[in-house]
Amino acid sequence: MAQTFHDLVPLLKEIKSIAKRFYMSLYKVVLAVVEDNLLTFVTFNGALDVDLTENGIKVKVLDENVSTLFIDTQKLKTLDIQLRFSRRLSDKTCIFLSVSLQLDHGELTVRYIVSTNPPNMEWKELDNPEDIEALYKTISEELLNLRDKLLEEVK
């Protein structure tokens, strides 16, 4: 079944709800977009607000200069959205969650990393990217296990 951007909206909302459940903050959004054979690669750091509209993605960066980027998803051929979240457990310990939703000519791939050190971890791919329940269960279980392990080490 060919996917469209609008099929990603429930997945993105679920990812944001998982992060909220674990008190994680969104600290980076990476967008790679192929639009009319032109690749656009954008990274946002800091305080972010991501709105999903009927026609696209609106990313607002909340720093001293509030800036907004809008991507019209009607013309997209390829879109890769990476959302990166973090939560500090102690002075030395953070939990990171990175989720990548890649839509390439109607084919959806969902990958994620749950770790304490993102650069050294491999992406894991979900077998059924359309299954929101599996996404929630898989990522939540990994976050719970990692959090419990880290809290045990802190004691």
**pLDDT averaged residue by residue:** 77
Number of helices: 2
Q: How many separate domains make up the residues?
A: 1
Portion in beta strands: over 45%
The dominant shape is globular
Runs in which pLDDT lies below 50 for 5 or more consecutive residues are none
- Strand-and-helix sequence, N→C? HEEEEEEEEEH
The rounded distance between the terminal residues' Cα atoms is 48 Å
Largest sheet: 6 strands, antiparallel
What strand order characterises the main sheet?
2-1-6-7-8-9
- Find the count of extended strands (DSSP E, 2+ residues): 9
Helix vs. strand class:
alpha+beta
Helix content: 25-40%
Gyration radius from CA atoms, angstroms:
16 Å
Q: Which key features would you list for this structure?
A:
single chain; about 160 residues; alpha+beta; 9 strands; six-stranded antiparallel sheet
What is the topological layout?
Layout (H helix, E strand, L loop, with lengths): L4 H17 L3 E11 L2 E8 L2 E5 L3 E6 L5 E6 L3 E13 L5 E11 L2 E9 L8 E2 L6 H23 L1
